[in-house]
Structures are given as structure tokens and as C-alpha cells.
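Narrative of activities, Objective 1.

The group set out to show that a structural description can be obtained from nothing but a protein's sequence at a throughput compatible with the screening campaign. Below is one input-output pair from the validation batch, recorded exactly as produced.
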Amino acid sequence: MKSIKNIKIALLNILFISVVASGCKDTFLEETPISSLTTDSYYKTEAGFEDLVRACYPLLRNIHQNRVLVLNGTDIFASQGGWNPSAVNGKENTPTLYDVYDARFNATVPELQTLWQLLYAEISRCNTAITRADAITTMAAALKDARVSEAKFLRALCLFYAVQHWGDIPMPLVEVTTAGKDFPRVPSADVYKQLINDLLDCEAKLPVTATQYGRITKGAAQFLLARVYLTRGWNFNNALGGSAADFDAAITYADKIIDAYPLATNYSDLFPKRSNNPLTQYTGTQNDKNAEIIFAVQWNPDVLTNKTDAAFTQDAAGGNDLHSKFGPSGEGFPGSKGRTTDYNRCLGIHQITTATYRFFDPDNDTRYAHNFVNVGYALTAVSNFKPLPQSNPTLTFNIKAGDTVILCRPWNNPTTTLAERGIDVGGTKNYSVVNTYEYGGGYPIDNSGLPVQAPLMWKFWQPGIPYGDAYGTFNECIFRSAEAYLIAAEAIVKGGKGAKLGTADVYYNKVLDRALGTKKGTDPKCAAAPEDQKSLATASYRATASNVTIDLILDERAREFMGEYNRWFDLKRTGKLVERVRKYNPWTKGQAISDKHNLRPIPQAEIDLTFPAISQNPGY
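Output recorded for this entry:
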């Protein structure tokens, strides 16, 4: 494919130019014997091969910033904008194609094209390193094996992403050095067989501890094996070559991770330290090298990813943008300082669905307090603020720095009396008081002078980042051992055997009890009907031997991994995508999701580049 080939050639040219540039003297008239240096000769040296493998890492940033297809249009995330008709004027926003999966979700969607190109560019880089490894004769065998295994792992990760999205896919396994159009799709079962063979080889040859932090380790290979075996065991459309034995293998590898990577003491220990009140924010520790983390995309300055290399001053990915992609935003609160670091920029690309708030026990689950900011504060004083009340239109009041300007009541404790409400609707509070069922547009006053929205999603908030398109340096976790517990629980529910810890509920409750903190062992309550915004009926989400189901596990995965790079994959793997989107995604009008959406359309631009033309997925 042209896109794959062009990116590979660009990579080789960049590396070649950087090497040549480093050999230049102060005067260009001074003759130096560099004309014989080529990519072919450089990659045969140990230093050149090290650079080639290092060049396989940076694209992970761009791939994992392409989150729309993984998060939006699921049960826990919707796209930018509100979703319910306003209680005042009846206006409705137009749903995005990612949420309702209508005719606009087709082979021309730009995000599909971008993700395809990124994945195959990375596969191409890795293939170059793997193919050229045989020419390296000076590197110690164990080190060479480790470097080749790093490239094999990264190729496997990208192929795994691709096969889940598109099913049968092209699977190039060697460096492409000549132009060509024949890139046939390979059956998914063959892709999974290749993934497992490669990852088993990686497991055998990778070190337990990396020579540089951020490199692939034995644990990363074992974790990905657990995911791959679990996914193949579900055997989507009977096309993956899966069997019951895959669930046994998933448990085996999950247990290996559990033994080697202890859970962090607290859920919040995994994310940037900050206060929920911008007036008292602090940067604290990054927490991105916690022992629970098995593999993360590197954003800290590090030679591994060329972040500090003069030849790579322009990083196409920019930096970690997790802090700015989730809504809502606090920058429009009364008394805000304008565009500053305090609330920073929240673009709202990924909006929490109302049902998601109701998956949590707000009183007992520490993840609720860390993930969401229920109270908004004024950062500066405001004199004679006008709240636009329904009565007494001349009413004004003064706001001091630090005053509350919005309170989002938890779903299980809504305001029920006028006295508990803000003065904008005739209550007594000098701030808006918003119930969960009003988050999408049901507040009594449309365009209130006081802010009306859902809680801020601050799971990844990193204080002090300059306003705008500035980026963070927090490493983005991709694998952590909490997921291994839930992989094992899911595999056991599917009939897997050989679990070290026993039954599925034991594994599940290990993750839950960490989230409960000092209330470990108690019985947390979520909404019995998360899709019903006004229902106060509750249900326990502690697992028992009799109640643990795939849906219970998916709910726990939503609480634990919200915003991490996995939700669409979870729903597709378990066959729950259509069911849970219809049930929990707030976009119901125009909802057109169907079974065909368990596979993405092949980007049309890629079909056009192939001959014979590769086939399109059914229904597109």
C-alpha cells in the first residue's frame, strides 16, 4: 500500500539525514569520507540497528492519541455536544456518526483512514528492523534477540489493534523495498496464530527488566498474550480459530502478570497528583512509573523515543493530550481567569454518558472522587454577578475567589427541595445545583447565568500545563496489572480453568477492594438501571460466585479503565457492543448500530491503492 511504503521511506530518509548531519564539519569545504554511508551500511552496525529499533517507538504516541474510534460511540463515552432535548426550548443537537452509526459511518471516515495509516506505518517500521536483523553480526546475541523481540512485540500490538477493528487484514511480515499493489487480506485466524507465535518468541527472549525504562519487557509480552488469548477464545464470528483452551491460556498469563506486578495501593496513585480545587493545585509526583504499570507510551524526555535528539525536534504527536480531550470544561465558570493553566483547555472530544456516572457508588468508590470533579470554584472575585433568575430579574450578588459556582449532585443524592437549589431557579444557594438527570439539557433554566453541566472528567488532569494546545509529559499507561485480574475473571466466566486465585469473583473483588480503600470488603451500590436517569434504585456491584457475569465485569472495567485505550475492544470482544450502546449511549434518536458495526469499514483510499482490490467488509 502506498501509504505504508511512503511512511517507511520517509523514516529511512530521516534517519539517514540525521546521521549525515552529525558528520558535518564547520566548513563545508573540508572533505570528509561520508559518501559511502548509506542506510544499508549504517543499519548493519550496532549503533544503526539500535536507532532502527528506537524508531519503532514514537508512532505509539500518534496511534494512542487516535482515541475516537476506541472511546466514542460506546456505552460510556459519547461525542462532543449535548444529547437530550432542552427542557426549555426543545432544541436538539445533531448526533455524530460515531454515536448513532448511521450512513455517515462509512469507508470515507477520516479517523479510520488515519488509524489504518498509523498502524501500518508502525508495522512497516517494525518489519524493517526485523528483516535487517540478520545483517547485524557485532551485537551480543541476547541483546540482539531482545531488540528484535521489541520490534516483533510492537508489530504484534498494531496487528492486534487492526484485526480487532477490521477482521481479515493485510499482514506484511517483511520489509517492503519495492512498490506494489498486491496486499491481500489474510484470514483473522491466521493473524491470531501469527500474533501468538510472535509473542511466545518475545516472551522467551525479552528481559524481565528493560535496559531503558519504556522498552518492551517480558511482562509486556505476557500481558498481551493474555489479551490475545482471551480475545481469540471468544472466537468472533467463528473466525479467529479460538477454542476453550484459549481461556485457560488467558488465565495462565494473567496469573503471571499478577505475580510480577503488584497493584498500586490506591487507584489515584496511578495518575498525576492534583487537587480538585484549582486554587490549591499542586503538581506532585507524576506516578507514571508505578509498579502496577507494565507498559506505557513514553512522553517524558527520554533518549529511547528521540525526544531529546536534535534531529527530532518536531514531534508530530506533540505530547500527552489526555488532560484536554475529556469534557466538560471549567474555563467558563464565573470568576475564571480566562485562558489559564487553572482549568486549562477541555475540548470535550470524549463526553461521559449519563449512565457512566451511575455505574459508581459516589459515597464509597474512591474512583468516583478521583475521576470526577463535582464542585466548580471561582478563581477570582466577581462583583454584582447576575444569575439570570426566573424571578426577581434585578437580583445580583458578589462572588469571592474560592466560592462555589456549581455543585453537581451525585446520582444517588439529588436535590429534592427548592431550598437546596440555586437562586437562579428560586432557591437559596449562590451557585447552580444540578442533578444527574439534568446534565444533558433538562435544567429548569436554559442558558442560566450560572454554569450548568456535568462534573469535570479529571482522571488524567495534569496541573500547570500552559493553556491551549500545550501538552503534558505524563506517560500514557497501556497495560497495567489491574486488567489482568479482570481478564482472568472474564476467562473463568467463559469456562477457563487453572486459576491460581480460585473463582472469578475473587479476581474481580481484588480490583474493587482497592477502589474502596478504607471501605474494603463493603458492598458498593450502583444504579440498578443506569440508563434511567431518575431512578434511585440500587444494586450491589460486589461480585459473588453466583452473580459474576460478563456485564458485571464490563461495568467494573468501565469504572476502572474509563478513558484508557480499550473500551470498544472490550465491547466487541464480548459481543456486547450493539446491546450496550443501545442501552446506555444517550443518543437514541437515529440510532442505527447493528451487528455489522462489530467490524469497521476498510478505508476506501486503501482499497483504491490495491490491485487486485481488497474486499470491503459486509454491509459497507
